[in-house]
Q: What sequence folds into this?
């Protein structure tokens, strides 16, 4: 459970706190025969009973604010408590920098409450962009693929700015884990949307080099192969005509390392009328398990090989074979 | 093939184990309406919905409704679009949608649409394509899609399409199977699937299948039973389900059962919960496992539910009210 500082103190039941003596707690009503019966701890039940009382009375006081904090420590996912806390903060005109610190503490343990962040962040304006980015960075140090945190980080960049170091941050994450698809997605986000970088056209060449380096390091990694396609969006002929692409396929196949993605890329190239070198054809045939397929058409042969090396998707590769355009 | 422990799963759902300090139960309190949908739909698929007192459930659900028309996660909780869909779905299971003041609920949902066509989850403004799906599915079940600007809703969803053919929660966000289900489902219900590159997305989706036969939700993540629903239903909606190895997936799901106590977990040997039990059983239904009721991949309700599926000609009729429409 999320407790923070409270953890050290023994909890005094609400019924024994003099400052709450005037309140009659309101119990939860789940209906007479609950379909999904919930077991509550005594502490949780009591806190929520008192919360319900102040909520129904719409009491927006300092003690109510403190109570929402206790309720949030017990269950930070409870929407109604957060919403009421927001109303109290507005009513009491509380310093939101302190609130940011509190939310920081809670969200570290339950990283799905980002809309709470946004409400506070928007009120405080652009000055806190770097703090927000630092916050998500800390989340990523524990869970580098946290979907909600990535969504939040993208919102921060677009609403509050702070693009300066984003590409470098992607570099860092990919160095930690080249398989991190979220980081690859973020890289694409930065390259295409950062107001500081000049856009995809300008960045393409160096990004292709980056992707190829990643592929050579771990050819079984799905992400850089897709990234490569993404760099040539709406311009697949440039992909086909970039000699580096056919070249990396050849390098991977010659090395006889996991080759499904390389074979798939070869197939994509062939589907757009790339003329394969003999070297490439030989390399493809060499990675085929026995019995080696005998399709005379090279593209069809690639599909047959893919059915052998990626049998779980045999049905997909069979379909690819039927949709190969007529060869020149 | 291993056995589906139907009786044990029914028993598990009907009486969730009551441990006093069960943290899982405590944190579930605020989303019991979702829990009811997961539990009851599972029972219906297993042919055991009559094990539940329909009137009790309907009465409890209606008490979760807020005066705004939306539903909270439990009695006395603030409304959110997440719980509103689950409430409508539960009523649909019992063929009791007519107990609703449809106008009231539909207005609540419609009020959450933003200028750009996106939907917020509640009055506090978080935007996510999950909410687009929820709004569209809810209103379709209520036969009130005319309450929103469908064309703009579709436009926003399409703006969340990525180069890999997948969809994220907001424009630029990483493709994620859960978000893809939401976007594809929403496009299916509104007759807008022509916006999906089915071959490209179909490949991304079938790449989710890992060696064990299970499905992950993004590249390089672990397989999880819930993706048996999100990936699978998406594949079915775009007519590409034959691209995965169905037999291996069935075995993976069956391996995730707790054969002693009932229930299904995210992956073999982990703790079970209602959420994964639903997705496992629903996935098996989509895979046409014997003895299960068929489930609709877009509405996530058994196909014999009376209020589902606004007829296609009705969608076209609605479109005239908004002028331009994308057609089928």
A:
């Amino acid at each position: 459970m999320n407790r923070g500082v409270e953890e050290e103190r023994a909890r005094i039941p609400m019924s024994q706190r003099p400052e709450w003596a005037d309140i009659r707690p309101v119990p939860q009503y789940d209906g007479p025969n609950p379909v999904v019966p919930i077991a509550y701890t005594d502490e949780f039940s009591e806190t929520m009973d008192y919360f319900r009382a102040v909520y129904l009375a719409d009491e927006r006081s300092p003690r109510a604010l403190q109570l929402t904090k206790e309720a949030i420590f017990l269950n930070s996912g409870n929407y109604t408590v957060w919403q009421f806390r927001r109303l109290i903060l507005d009513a009491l005109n509380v310093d939101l920098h302190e609130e940011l610190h509190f939310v920081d503490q809670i969200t570290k343990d339950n990283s799905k409450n980002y809309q709470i962040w946004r409400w506070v962040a928007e009120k405080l304006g652009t000055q806190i962009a770097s703090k927000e980015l630092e916050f998500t960075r800390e989340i990523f140090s524990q869970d580098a693929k946290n979907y909600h945190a990535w969504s939040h980080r993208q919102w921060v960049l677009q609403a509050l700015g702070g693009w300066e170091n984003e590409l470098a941050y992607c570099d860092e994450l990919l160095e930690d884990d080249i398989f991190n698809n979220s980081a690859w997605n973020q890289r694409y986000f930065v390259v295409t949307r950062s107001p500081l970088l000049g856009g995809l056209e300008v960045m393409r060449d160096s990004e292709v080099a980056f992707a190829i380096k990643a592929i050579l390091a771990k050819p079984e990694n799905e992400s850089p192969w897709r990234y490569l396609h993404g760099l040539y969006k709406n311009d697949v002929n440039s992909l086909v005509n970039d000699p580096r692409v056919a070249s990396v396929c050849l390098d991977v196949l010659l090395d006889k390392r996991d080759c499904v993605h390389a074979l798939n890329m070869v197939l994509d190239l062939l589907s757009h009328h790339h003329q394969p070198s003999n070297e490439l054809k030989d390399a493809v045939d060499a990675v085929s398990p026995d019995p080696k397929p005998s399709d005379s058409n090279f593209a069809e042969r690639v599909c047959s090989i893919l059915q052998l090396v990626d049998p779980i998707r045999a049905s997909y590769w069979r379909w690819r074979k039927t949709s190969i355009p007529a060869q020149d | 093939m291993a056995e589906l422990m139907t009786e044990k799963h029914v028993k598990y759902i009907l009486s969730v184990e009551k441990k006093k300090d069960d943290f899982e139960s405590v944190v579930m309190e605020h989303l019991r309406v979702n829990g009811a949908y997961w539990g009851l739909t599972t029972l219906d698929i297993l042919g055991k919905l009559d094990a539940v007192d329909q009137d009790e459930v309907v009465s409890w659900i209606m008490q979760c409704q807020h005066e705004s028309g939306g539903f909270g996660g439990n009695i006395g909780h603030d409304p959110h679009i997440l719980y509103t869909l689950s409430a409508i779905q539960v009523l649909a299971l019992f063929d009791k949608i007519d107990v609703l003041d449809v106008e009231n609920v539909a207005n609540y949902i419609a009020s959450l649409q933003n200028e750009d066509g996106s939907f917020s989850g509640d009055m506090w403004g978080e935007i996510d394509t999950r909410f687009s799906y929820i709004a569209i599915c809810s209103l379709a079940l209520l036969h009130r899609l005319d309450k929103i600007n469908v064309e703009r809703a579709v436009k926003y969803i399409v703006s969340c399409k990525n180069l890999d053919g997948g969809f994220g929660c907001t424009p630029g966000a990483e493709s994620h199977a859960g978000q893809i289900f939401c976007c594809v489902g929403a496009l299916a219900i509104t007759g807008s699937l022509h916006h999906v590159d089915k071959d490209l997305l179909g490949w991304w989706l079938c790449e989710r299948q890992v060696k064990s036969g299970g499905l992950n939700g993004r590249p390089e993540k672990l397989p999880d039973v819930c993706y048996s629903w999100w990936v699978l239903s998406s594949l079915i909606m775009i007519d590409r389900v034959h691209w995965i190895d169905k037999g291996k997936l069935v075995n993976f799901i069956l391996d995730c059962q707790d054969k002693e106590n009932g229930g299904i977990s995210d992956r073999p040997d982990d703790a079970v919960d209602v959420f994964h039990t639903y997705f496992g059983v629903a996935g098996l239904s989509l895979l046409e496992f014997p003895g299960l009721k068929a489930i609709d991949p877009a509405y996530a309700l058994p196909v014999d539910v009376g209020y589902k599926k606004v007829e296609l000609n009705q969608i076209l009729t609605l479109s005239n009210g908004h002028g331009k429409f994308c057609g089928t």
In short: Chain A touches chain B through 63 residues (CB under 8 Å). Confidence is low (pLDDT under 50) at residues 1-8 of chain A. Chain A has 17 helices and no strands. The longest helix of chain A spans residues 200-217.
